[in-house]
Amino acid sequence: MRDDLGLDAIFRPKSIAIIGASRKKGSIGREILHNLIENEFAGAVFPINPHADYIHSIKCYPSLAAVPDPVDMGIIVVPKDQAVQAVDECGKKGVKGIIMITAGFKEVGGKGVEREEELVKVFRRYKMRMVGPNCMGVLNTDPSIKMDATFAPTFARDGNIGFLSQSGALGVAILEYADDLNLGLSMFVSVGNKVDIGGSDVLEYWAQDERTKVILLYLEDFGNPRKFTHLAREIVKHKPIIAVKSGRTMAGARAASSHTGALAGLDVGTHALFEQCGVLRVNTVDRLFDLGQAFSRQPIPKGKRVAILTNAGGPGIMATDAVVSVGLQMAQFSDKTLSRLREFLSEEASLQNPIDMIAHANAENYKRSLEILLEDDGIDSLIVIFVHPVYVDAKKIAESIIQVAKKQNEKPILCVFMGKKHEESGIEELQLAGLPTYLFPESAAITLASMEKYNRIKNRPEGKILSFKDIKKPVTQKIFDRALTENRERLTDLEVSQVLAAYGIPMPKFVLVRSLEETVRVTEQQNYPVALKLIAPEVVHKSDVGGVILDLHNEAELVRGYMRLQDNLSKLPNPPQKYEVMVQEMVKGGKELIMGMSYDPSFGPLIMFGLGGVYVEYLKDVSFRINPLTDLDAREMVTTLKGYKLLEGVRGEKGVNIDKIVEMLLRLSQLIADFPCIKEMDLNPFMAFPEGEKCMALDARISVHNVPPEEQSDEVKPRSSSRAKSNPNVKKHV
Amino acid sequence: MRDDLGLDAIFRPKSIAIIGASRKKGSIGREILHNLIENEFAGAVFPINPHADYIHSIKCYPSLAAVPDPVDMGIIVVPKDQAVQAVDECGKKGVKGIIMITAGFKEVGGKGVEREEELVKVFRRYKMRMVGPNCMGVLNTDPSIKMDATFAPTFARDGNIGFLSQSGALGVAILEYADDLNLGLSMFVSVGNKVDIGGSDVLEYWAQDERTKVILLYLEDFGNPRKFTHLAREIVKHKPIIAVKSGRTMAGARAASSHTGALAGLDVGTHALFEQCGVLRVNTVDRLFDLGQAFSRQPIPKGKRVAILTNAGGPGIMATDAVVSVGLQMAQFSDKTLSRLREFLSEEASLQNPIDMIAHANAENYKRSLEILLEDDGIDSLIVIFVHPVYVDAKKIAESIIQVAKKQNEKPILCVFMGKKHEESGIEELQLAGLPTYLFPESAAITLASMEKYNRIKNRPEGKILSFKDIKKPVTQKIFDRALTENRERLTDLEVSQVLAAYGIPMPKFVLVRSLEETVRVTEQQNYPVALKLIAPEVVHKSDVGGVILDLHNEAELVRGYMRLQDNLSKLPNPPQKYEVMVQEMVKGGKELIMGMSYDPSFGPLIMFGLGGVYVEYLKDVSFRINPLTDLDAREMVTTLKGYKLLEGVRGEKGVNIDKIVEMLLRLSQLIADFPCIKEMDLNPFMAFPEGEKCMALDARISVHNVPPEEQSDEVKPRSSSRAKSNPNVKKHV
User: Fold this and answer.
1) If exposure means fewest CB atoms within 10 Å of the residue's CB, which of A407, A489, A519, B472 is most exposed?
2) Are A678 and A544 in a shared domain?
3) A484-502 mean pLDDT
């Protein structure tokens, strides 16, 4: 394995110094040393402490400089005010990697922030890599390394799961859960404040690690969501990534004045990111382990068809409920399967899925049934349920399941052994044999649904970021430059229509006027019917103030309409001082949609698409993706709406031109990528028409901001290639 | 406690005979005897077996007749073909209650069904009460009874939870879970096939039982949903009922041709029932225990405001996410609370909710913080999180929480101790002290949300079933009688409008015509604009076939419209042979709603209400309630819609007349209650207008069926009193 990242110094060191090692039981400096020794670290360990000669029977050195041999990694556990000094000593000694356990940096605010800045300066000077500060350490179960550089009381079994936790405290619990489930890890890292090594580095490292087959993440934030996306998209083709992301983004709150922003809110950025790069998201740590158990030890199912085998009706029903409600299907058994089952199962057994063998089913019944089900091509995965009758030996049941499972690697088998885990329950044996075992049927069903989703992610075609050649960038550049120069937050309606036109997004024809006379003059006969719309900077939602008059068929109606508009204005508590009126070609029919974009400080531009109209706006049937969109992203935004059927056409009604909508989203995406100064866009209503016809924005708003610095430095050039390039200057943290 | 139900013979017998007692270890006949003896049943036990003199050192009798003393209860565990005979012997001996463990009855089909019919005849003859068949027994922890009449390996701790399971197999697991959580039960019953004693009887019995404070149910079906509703509505005022209901109803499937039916589908009946009677529903057995732990041992919170106290940031964030996402609120601390906390918590602690005391927080920190939070009036409930740092004694933390919790009974305290339960984890101590303790923050948040919901259920005003005096029942009766006599499934449009009018539900004025000439003749000048609608029995969705022509303003438009209608008809693959045309007053504006009713074989009439229009129909924003509706039920149906805001009026638009909609739902409810022959109704679209104005059905369909027998015998008279009377002839099962 190549180590371009320099992370071998952290995960595979040959020698370790513990700066701040201690004799005091229960102290972190003692527990880490103890864990390294107890779990038989394959390299050398040097305790550093000026006040001791030997710790844990090992010679102790007063300073790092006094160590006679080279040191690959330093674990720092000294008090916070000595921590930076310790790093400096590591640098001087030629240490390549540091685990900074010590806390009291940015996370405590105030002086801690300064201390962290100091820390960064020092370790960068020596070009070292660092995990932490404020972390609980690193662990590698590789038999040739066997490093437990944590202060957790539990080591981990050798296995194929890489586990990253942003919370150190949770890390302790995570190792206990894994142990309780007999679940093996390849490596574990608690990344703490992530001054250097963050999620992206670790992902990249584990992507290349042969022992790591599954990656589990507990995240609280993303340092660099673009880099994360870029890496994760590639990795999930080979290794599933499953994540809990806690702490929701407050993106949308700030933008309450705009529809797009108001709909965005909360967690949409994270959701979009995970969907786009194919990371499986779960909401809780126990679910993370439910999935981890199965992904690490069972094959991925090829489809949605589940068979359930049980010795009790109630749990069978619950499992069926669960399977159906997570979107999987109950398998239909072949005639052959049914007749083979009938040969030996009791008359009282129910052979249809779920198969209820009833309470007196024995180990042989489980074994033969499983063998038969595994051979049925109409089944993609199995849930095996066992409830313990007094007169049945649970361990024998477990043993028979293990025997069958060992002989195949095509279909996942998930076990549900209800009751308590104890010596006679057979659960321990199942877990050790690599059979994920749950206490309740729902956990198994939810896990299978995620595995089936992963099967689709792995096999999904690769999306492309399209580049439209017919766009007019220079004209558009001028418009934005002018707005920024004039310190305007919003583009005028004329500018908006010009920008959209330059990127091939149509709007109805219109003319801006300032008086009734002008209105009548510019509206030629062939243009009727028209609509009148109030254009005033103070008025964001025109229709709320009676600023939209629709469907004027002739000059008389036009005159009355204009006067009604003025009348509505005069009734406002604060009528706008300066305004114009837009005389717009009246567009009739079509399905009302909404498209938009808002800027999230951590994810950058988020594109939004949804069904429009006042009903749907309140029901919030919208989807979000992080810009740039691939063609598949754009299509998914449309097809995953709850109301997608309405776009396809219902009750004999013609469907709308979906391809055109997808094209418009991609053009919007290109516009947004070309102009990072766009802060918010709102194309509402956006009207779609039947297949073969175009679609258009009836109304649109664009606001701009000065480009945030990250945006400028982050050289993501989505248009020049199908993949964002990463910039070496970008900080290497997630 | 009075025993009108005769259930004391089952739950509090003085003497028990085990018919089919056995010496064979692992056999059910031995395990039940062993459990009764081992757990020191307070009465006499008589083993019955012709082939043994003594079992478990107790004198064994060859037959029940040979027992010299009276026997209150018989537990039957003989093979299925001897079971009915055993019941007969019990009857002859004067036994009052029976637990029929033996399986092989209705659940296996075929001969089992006959066997069950035989069984019912025999036990009814002797007026005995029976639990089962096909069950795993009954348990009562009352110290004066101490009866473990189950074959499960686990007895239960003395406690205040009554647990009913419809699945015997699950019962075994349930007792293990309860034991693992140190959760005490008052009684447990596995009801099996429920030939006699079902959920309603047990509810009624536990309602009066002083030891039972919380009722947990695992149900697979309802025998008599009306009786259940009636009882549960009363009980939840004093004792929370929490239920898992597995196995979804297939009600709606059958009615695919009608909107209402299609929307109904699946699980709506159960959902409606639980909502109406205030039963808390959870989807999984583990959630049942999450709630059971807290409801049985902690006070009910007075509101939504939660305080979180933690020694680790990550879990604090997860808990916050969870609290907000279940609809609770993060409490705002008072200045006094903040300054008191600041006095002793470390500088690095974060005092805002969630309070993160960071890893080195000790038992004293937990104790003082908790005391302060309990005194803040802005807090309704507390979640206390602890993650175990190596240098902290978890048991001491647990002890300090217990000390504080003991001193108050105002605010619920839920603990989250992350990691594994083991000797040093403190979890055992917390559970024994009555502090619900979870491994993950989400479980605590979900539980608190249910407790808060229960607080609202307990305090909600009692709904009334209204009886409108202005209705015309006799006229309506005639219409339905005629349809039934003529064997018609559907009422004609004229009949529909007459029925609705008789119950005060308006429709627009209309005339039915058969020719263009007639159309022109009947449409008088003042009636314009009008709509034309095709009326043909074959056509269910008129608008799908071009059978609705709207907005005709004068005679010329009327003629053209009529011809267009004929033209549309001629294009159909199978044009209707006979049809009429409805000339209807054109109603403009208003909000489009939908109301309806479908008949569910187990729940009876289900009333449906929702937002209308093609969009919303696909998004399924609808609510269901079981008839009859109280005024509060009807209002809830309206206010709990996701799109309720749209009815209240958005963006300055006027809201609709909610009171009128509620009245219409209640009139509909009365109509449906008065005429059980109504099988389906569909008022679609139903238009609502602004406050002060009326609302009306623009189109409606009613179909009828011969009244199902249960409906006739079940003398629920919702109109004569606010509470359904129960009929002594109705079978006493849920």
Assistant:
1) A407
2) no
3) 92
